[in-house]
Model the fold of this input.
Amino acid sequence: MSIIPYFFLVFSVVAIASYVILAIISAVETIEYMKKNSFINYKEILSSTFSPSISIIAPAYNESLNIVENVRSLLSSHYVNYDVIIVNDGSKDDSLSKLIKAYDLIQIDYLINEQIKTKPLRSGIYKSTNPAFDKLTVVDKKNGGKADALNMGLNISKSKYVACIDVDCLLLEDALQKLIKPFLETTDAKVIAAGGVIRIANSCTVKDGKLLDINFPKTWLEQGQILEYLRAFLLGRMAWSRLNGLLVISGAFGLFDKKIAIKVGGYDTNTVGEDMEIIVRMRRYMEDEKQKYKVAYIPDPLCWTEAPDNYKTFISQRNRWTRGTIETLKKHRKIGFNPKYKSLGLISYPYWLFFERLAPIIEVAGIIYFGILIFLDEVRWDYAFAFIIMAYLFSVLFSIVAIVSEELTYHQYKKKSIGLKLVMIAFLEPFVNHPTILYSAIRGNIDYYFYKKIEWGEMTRKGMTKA
Amino acid sequence: MNDNLHIFESLKHYPLTIQFVWALSCLFFIFIILLTIYLKYLRSHLRVNEKKEAKYQEVYESHLVTYLYAGNDNEVFSSEQQVIINELKKDVADPFKRKIIISTLLKLRSEISGEIGESIDKLYIKLGLLRYSLAKLRNKKWDVIATGIRELTQFKIKAVHKMVLNNINHPKREVRKEMQLYLVHLYGFNGLEFLNVLETPLSEWDQIQLLEILQLNNDTQVADIKPWLNSSNDSIVIFALKLAKVYNQFEAKEELITLLNHNSEDVRINVISALSHLHLFEATTILKNNFSERSEEEQIAFLKMMENVYEASDKPFLLEHVHHKNSEIRLSIMEILKNINFEEYTLYDDDIKKILTA
Done:
C-alpha cells in the first residue's frame, strides 16, 4: 500500500516539471518568433502570382443560422491565390438553399478526382454565376461526417495546399499568408502541416464576417475555456513545435500539404478525433519514408471560433476529445516508445499517453484513493493539506503566467477589467471547469469502451454577437 | 507578528518534506501576487502607450503632410519646413517618439512616390535619423542590426552600401535577408549579384519577396540569368527559372531545355512550367519521348503544359497513357482528349468515370 502515494507523488512532480519545461521552451520560442516576425512583410505574398494555391475546405452540417455570413467571412481573405470549398454534408436544414440564394449558385458538371472514397454526392456541385464569388464551390453530398466531408474537399481541390476549417470559424484576413509562410520558408525540412492559435469568439462582436470588437464572455464556463486555450496555445504548442513533437493541429483551422494528406488516405472516418489522427498518420508516413519533415505552429491568432456556453455541449465536446485521443493513440500504438520514430515515438507519444490520455484516470484514482484513506482514517492531514495547497497555487500561478504571456505578446483583451476577470477565473477554474473536464474525460473513457457507437454529437449554434 | 512567529515555529516541527512543500507554496503565492500586480501595471502601461502612440502619430502625420506641401521648387527647405524640422528634431532624441516618427515617415513613404516621396527621404537624413540607423548596424543584437538595414532600405540610402555589405555572412538568416532586400530594393537586378556567391538555400518565401520587389522597381535592364541557371545551388536555379517566366527570357531557351535533365526533380518541374509559360513547345517532343521515365510530378506538369498546346496528333500519345496509375494524370489526359474532340469523349462519360476511379 505504501507505494501508492509515491506513485501519485512522482506522477504529479513529473507532470508539473513537464508543464514548466514546455512553458519555458514556449516562452523562448515565442520571443524569437515575435522578433523574426517583426521583419516579415506579408504584403508581397498577397499580390504575387507565385503564391501557392490554397483551397479552404469547410464542412457544414445544419449550419443554416450563420452559413451565409460564415462563407462571406471565408471569401474575404486577403490572400491572392485561394478558393473556398463548402461541403454541405447532408444537412437536413436549408443551408444549401440559403447559399444558392445568397451566392447565385447553379449546379455544374464537375469531374471529381476520387482519390479518397467518400459518400456520394446528393444534389451535386455548385458554382456562382456572379464573378465576385468565383472562388466559391459548394458541394452537396450525402451525410458521412466531418472527416468524410473533408475528404470530399480533398478530392475536389485542385490546389497544392488545403486549409481545413470549421465553417463557423471566423478567419482573420491575413490568416492564410501567415499560415503558408512555414511551408515556403523552411528549406531544411518539408513542412507537412501547420496550425496557429484559435481564439474564443463568444461575446465578440462580428459584422459581415469581420471581427469588430473583442469582449470577454460573462459565464465562468466560457471564461475558463479562454484561459485554458491561452495556456494550451501560449505555453504548450510552441514548445511542441520546437521539439517537432506536435501531435495535433486544431480541427478548427489547419493547413496541410494536400499531396501528403491524400497519400496517407485522407481523414479517418472511423474516429471522432480526425484532426489529431491525420497528423499522427502524416508524421508516421514521413518517418517511414525517412524524409525530414516538420509540423509547424505559429503563435499568431488566426481564427476565432464559438466555444460551448452550456455544460451539456461542453461535456459532449470534451467527451469527444477524450475518445478521439484514445482512438488515435490506440491506432498508432506501434510508434509509442519506438526509437524508429524518434521524437514522435519517444517524447510526443509517451507525453500524450501519460499526461493527456491517462492523466484524468490517474487523477480520479487519486481522489478515490484519498477517499478510501479518509474512510480508513489513515490520512496524514499535514501532508495532504500541504500538497493540495501547493498543487492549487501552482495551477493558479501557471494560469497567471499564461495571462501575462498573452499581454506581452498579442494583448487582444484590451478592455478594462478583463485583466482582473482573467485573474479571478484563474483562481476559480480549478473548481469550476476542471471537475467538469475530469467528468467528461471519464465519461469519454466509459463511452469509448462500452458505448462505441456514439458519434460527433451536435453543437447548438447561437451565432456570434452581431454588430 | 507573534502569530506569524508561532506559525514558523510550528512548521519547524514538521518533516522536511512538508516544510519544503509549504516553502514552495509560499513562493508560488508571492509570485502570484507579484505577477498580478505586474499584470495590472502592464495592461495600464500598454493602454497608456497605445493612446500616446495614437496621439503622437496624429501629430507627426499632420506635421509631415504640412511639411510635404510646404515645399518649394528650390532644393532649399522653406521656412515653414524648417520650423517643422526643428520641432521634429527635438523629439528624435527620445527613442519612443523617434520610433513613431520613423513609422509615420514610412507610412507616408509607402503611399507617396516621385518627388514628394524623395523629399521624405531627404527629411529622414535632415532629422539625423540616418545616424541612428547606422548606429544600429554596429549593435551586437541581430534584430537591431536587421532593423537598421531595413530603415536604410526603406529610405533608399545608397551611400552606406559598403557598411551594409559587411553583413553578407552574418550568422543570422534574418540579417542576411535584410541585406539581400536592401540590395535588390536599391539596385534592382544589379542587386542580385549576391546570388553569385550565395551558398545557403534561397527559400520560396524569399524568392517571392525578391520577385515582387524587382517588379516594383520597373527596372528594364534585366540581368543575365544564364549563370544562375547553371548554379550549383538548386534554389538559385529555381529562382532564375521564375525570373525567366516573369521577364520572358526567351534567349535562355537552350539552357532551359538542358535543365530538363537536371538532377533535382524540383528544378525539372519548374523548367517545364517555365517552358510552358514561354510557349517553348519544342520541348514537348523531348518530354513526350521520355514521358514514362519522368516522375509523376513532372508528368503532371507536362500535361498541364499540354492543356494549352494540344494538337490532334497528340491523341495516340495521350491514349497510350490514359490508364496511368495516377488518377490526377488520368483526369488531365481525359480533359485534354475532351478538348481535342469533345463529341467523341462525352459519349463515353461512363467509361471516363471508370477510367478515373480504376
Notes: The first strand of chain A starts at residue 54 and ends at 60. The radius of gyration of chain A is 23 Å.
